[in-house]
User: Fold these one by one.
Assistant:
Number 1:
Amino acid sequence: MDPFLPRLETEERRRRGRLLFRHNKIPVRMLVPNFFTLLSLCAGLTAIRMAIEQRYEVAIALVVIAALLDGVDGRVARALKAQSKFGAELDSLADFVNFGVAPTVIIFVWGLGGLRGLGWISALVFALAMGLRLARFNATAEVEKPKWQADYFTGMPAPAGAITVLLPFYLHNLEIIDVRAWPVLIACYTLAIAFLLVSTIPTFSGKLLGERISRDQVMPLLVAIAALVALLVTYPYGTLTLGTLFYLGLIPVSYRRFEQKLKEPVPEPVSASSDAARFPGAGGRHDEATSETKH
């Protein structure tokens, strides 16, 4: 046996460890966002089981919970400064299961099974569109864009797509119309949502709205969140129906505002020479102070 073999294996394990984590010991705070991601993944996997058992109400509730947890883990990671490549990959995997596979199983078992092949194809297209949408998001995450474009997604985001595609189920349980009797319409609607996922239509994200809020808006915001949770618990299908219709109606508005923003002239940066010409007494120390104020 080669005496250098154990040493080489140890070095190989260390090298692989450095590829995953930068240090041998990592802060516990780095694991907190991944905990929320794993919770959302558990919710999505359990939703698949509930759909197979035809417990659709529980399945949809778990998809909504997974969407809420998906919004939490990213904000927790930024707040704790715990972003990592491992967490980003885990989050993308969880998103595909929660918002691609779980809604596909729910909508197929509930409303598309009667169409057999056509129903499965439409559900499959939705799942593939969700995977492509997530892959495009990961590929373009590092692309530099103007700050105002952070307020828009390219295409429909994954959580919104998962909740929106289940609109026929919400309408059916409101007992206004027997949506389940029209599986072809359900299939067409599913394909339409799949198109919105992979499209380049800008949709409003609201990321910039969450950066800062005034003190006067804190209490009304908390009351609004509590009221929304109460409505979801008391009138789940009515609340989800109104929310979905409102979101779909907001897409043309966000597209129009995005196009208007693109047509606005971009302000030219002021160079240091022009500042010196306008303010002859300004020196390097003043520029450093200005820079610190900006940051």
Note: The radius of gyration is 24 Å.
Number 2:
Amino acid sequence: MTKFDLLRKTEIRIENIGLKKANLTDIAEQVAGILGLSKGEVLVVDYLNGAMILDVLNTCVNAYNIVGKKERLLKALSVLPGVFISDDTSIHSDGMLGWIAMDEKAATEALRKSEQMAGEILRNISKRVIVFSTGAEVAKNLIEDTNMPAIEECLTAEGYKVSRGQILQDDLVLISAKLMEAADRGYGLIITTGGVGAEDKDFTVEAVKTLDPDAATPFICHFEIGTGRHIKDGIRIAVGSYGDTLIIALPGPNDEVRASLGLLVEGLKAKQGKHVLAENLANNLRDILRAKMSHFHGHSFRQE
């Protein structure tokens, strides 16, 4: 269903329409019904010198419900008591509502073509990926970034176009800004690696939540705040969205990134919601971390 924001162009003007003891509520409801709107979403706001002004209160309308509806609208009004329609009666609107007076067949075909184009654009966007590695050690070339090549190889094989983003310093404002910028540039998928831990230098999960307060951020494990360098109560990952862009914050260890890629691809193909995808990734990472931590004793943490 193609919906458009009316962008404050919400007025419908019907000229050369006669009224005599007409019920304005009935008129408004009749117009709303023809345009696929609910009762109360159209109001008659003025009638002067044979011109009636209506206002559409719902500013987001289904395009197919308004194109070419002039004749149906006038016919529906003509059967109401006290409403008089003639050959001179006309409908005028600005913006999207102007489509009411368009030829229905031609306008509907144009809408279908625009939907096809929009769908193709969205499909292309969904296949554009940018990967950001985080951390001072990577930024200073102290350690090799092995995550980007692994992600690129995997997703390229699945038909994605993968771009290398800059290596991000451990700064919440910077990371948030770069994620937003990438989404605005038309990337359908953003992946970050690193910065999901419990120390004061870990900010990627918080950055995702800056863009999407409802992001899924399941724990991989819990820590006691104040133990070692832990200022947060655990390690999390994040899956969020910003507009049409999916944002995924993965851990930094390369084995954990590689172990997540199969589930990530599977989730993308299945179009899993962010909470389902996040939990699937987290469950797998918990198993990996459990195996790692089984070699250590006395570490103050607990699994989910």
Note: The mean pLDDT is 86.
Number 3:
Amino acid sequence: MRGELVIEIQNEELVLSGDGQCDSPGFSAKNLCYFLMEVVTEYILEVKDMDKPPVGMKSSTMETKALTNALDGLKNKH
């Protein structure tokens, strides 16, 4: 189904929205799950997991890095 979805949206303009959910509140979070959704169709296009080590052990930068990874992943699928 994922392949069909990528083909369906391949030549469309996308309206994207994203949000991340940490495993715990505040600056002590160790993991984050980030979702990138196409607003019009409400399809979840990317899901990225992020841990603290790749972002220099700073939980406050996990969401930004996860967004970048999700957008890169979406671009690479087209």
Note: Residues 60 and 77 are 28 Å apart (CA to CA).
Number 4:
Amino acid sequence: MRRALAAASLVALAAPAAAFAHAGILSESPSYRQRLERAPVAVRVGFDQKITALANSIRVFDARGNVVSGSPRLTADGRGIVASVRRLPKGAYTVRWQALSGDGHVVSGVYTFGVRVAAPEPTQAYGASGPTTTEHVVRWLYFLALALLAGGLGFRLLVLRGPWPPAAARRFFWITGVGVVSVLEVGILAFLLRAQDALQLPFGRFVYGDLSPIAAGTRFGTAFIAMTLGYALVAAFLFLSWLTDRTWLLWPALALALGFASGLSLSGHSAVDAGSSKWSELADWVHLSAASLWLGGLVTLAVAVWPAMRDRRREAFVRFSRLAPVLIALLLGAGTYLAVLRLPRVGDLWSAGYGRVLLVKLGLVCLALAWGAFHHFFVRPALERPGVLSRLPRSLAGESAVGMAVLLAAAVLVDSKPPPATQPAAPASARAAVVDR
């Protein structure tokens, strides 16, 4: 028995790894997001090993979802599949491919190309449904995690410096630790959901999908890779600070946490929509950073400082109440600029879906502002009165809950499409009716 196991192990080690791996894509024609001046006569996908063609190994869709490709067939060397296409007019096209590799797994992928037009990203390919309710919730969880991380670090370094007692420090590291781990894990989940939507595959098949066009060929994918590596470095600084009890290590952690948050701004509406510029990207980053520092600071004040630092409660509240107006002013200023940029007409506030979500967010922000103003102008002067400090945690928790609701509205808003800058032209029949009148 032992000899048989040893022989089997030697065979497994001697056999090339590729023999047991699923097929990988080597080439496409037309290539990924290629703009062609002349329509192709066929679409071909090549692999690094022999594969078996399936009934729908290649399907080419036009922008309306019509299949414009013929039956697929294997190439002469057995390492590719090809399908002829009829004469393609000007427009964008989506290629969805699948093949049975030598290990028995069905590998799949998607990419786009354009005929005399720029090709869309794979996440906007035909069949992709766009952001779903699940993606809204995941985006919200990501914002909350970023707020716990950046806000906790900001509070520790900008609001209440100096040594913290062990109990408070332990709560602080729990808050920021949960934040950075959640940023990494929820970020991976967000990428997988977007990739699964683009590939349009069930999870069992999605595991063997080709994610390279999404990971390396889109702003979203590039930002995901950079942010994942960046926040892994933030986690390292945070862990070293906890392990060595050196607070200065939190400074690079805060700088990296806020810096890599710009990945969301560089891959969202502020970077790709009409009217976007470096200013809109900067405003979006300032908006997100201010909201994260404000909400995360509130949570740190209520969860870490209030229960474990009774002697510094008043100091912490007063210091944070000085910083909060600055953060809210930045949040409002950047948000107003972005709203004016993305809503070309006032009527879009109630006629467009993006505008209605923005109205909800503005209402929640106004509530948060009123709550913060109450703390600043009424609670802070009355801190010395008996009973005020004991009732304050509930009020802080309420303001934090409103802040979380603001982030939920922001998550839906980020995944929503702003209205176009120009109204679509009316049909010819409608214009003729207006003239007849």
Note: The first strand starts at residue 25 and ends at 29.
